[in-house]
């Protein structure tokens, strides 16, 4: 199997995972769907983690194992992910403060921006960050 075929299969799995997660979340809002197979859509998150691990290995397979290579890899991930996450998190905090006069404690915001778990409240989220769906990024950066 060549790289193009492998990455096409990964793209297909990523599409499946997206649809599964969207349907899972949708099933929470539509009454007759709560007991259907759609509630198993959370499996899409597991697929995303598997894909992420595969791509981390695939994209770094020819890189020399050195500290400088590791730092370059981490920096490239941060540059790709962090700006959007930062903007969304700060935007969410500003919106909450403006519309509802609520905002998180400063320590919660800092932990969220640094991808640190909020608490030891248990898996999978260990205390959600300011933007709830960011819990997966905590794992991504922990295992990177």
TrEMBL record:
<feature type="transmembrane region" description="Helical">
    <location>
        <begin position="78"/>
        <end position="95"/>
    </location>
</feature>
<feature type="transmembrane region" description="Helical">
    <location>
        <begin position="41"/>
        <end position="57"/>
    </location>
</feature>
<keyword id="KW-0472">Membrane</keyword>
<protein>
    <submittedName>
        <fullName>Acyltransferase</fullName>
    </submittedName>
</protein>
<keyword id="KW-1133">Transmembrane helix</keyword>
<keyword id="KW-0812">Transmembrane</keyword>
<dbReference type="Pfam" id="PF01757">
    <property type="entry name" value="Acyl_transf_3"/>
</dbReference>
<feature type="transmembrane region" description="Helical">
    <location>
        <begin position="7"/>
        <end position="29"/>
    </location>
</feature>
<keyword id="KW-0012">Acyltransferase</keyword>
<feature type="domain" description="Acyltransferase 3">
    <location>
        <begin position="12"/>
        <end position="143"/>
    </location>
</feature>
<dbReference type="InterPro" id="IPR050879">
    <property type="entry name" value="Acyltransferase_3"/>
</dbReference>
<dbReference type="GO" id="GO:0016746">
    <property type="term" value="F:acyltransferase activity"/>
</dbReference>
<dbReference type="InterPro" id="IPR002656">
    <property type="entry name" value="Acyl_transf_3_dom"/>
</dbReference>
<keyword id="KW-0808">Transferase</keyword>
């Amino acid at each position: 199997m060549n790289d193009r075929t492998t990455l096409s299969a990964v793209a297909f799995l990523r599409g499946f995972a997206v649809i599964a997660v969207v349907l899972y979340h949708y099933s929470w809002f539509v009454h007759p769907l709560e007991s259907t197979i759609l509630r198993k859509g959370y499996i899409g998150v597991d697929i995303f983690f598997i894909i992420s691990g595969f791509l981390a290995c695939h994209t770094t397979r020819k890189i020399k194992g050195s500290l400088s290579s590791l730092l370059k890899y981490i920096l490239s991930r941060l540059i790709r992910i962090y700006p959007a996450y930062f903007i969304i998190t700060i935007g969410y905090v500003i919106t909450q403060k403006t519309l509802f006069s609520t905002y998180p404690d400063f320590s919660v915001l800092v932990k969220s921006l640094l991808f640190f778990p909020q608490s030891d409240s248990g898996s999978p989220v260990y205390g959600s960050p300011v933007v709830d769906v960011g819990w997966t990024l905590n794992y991504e950066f922990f295992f990177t």
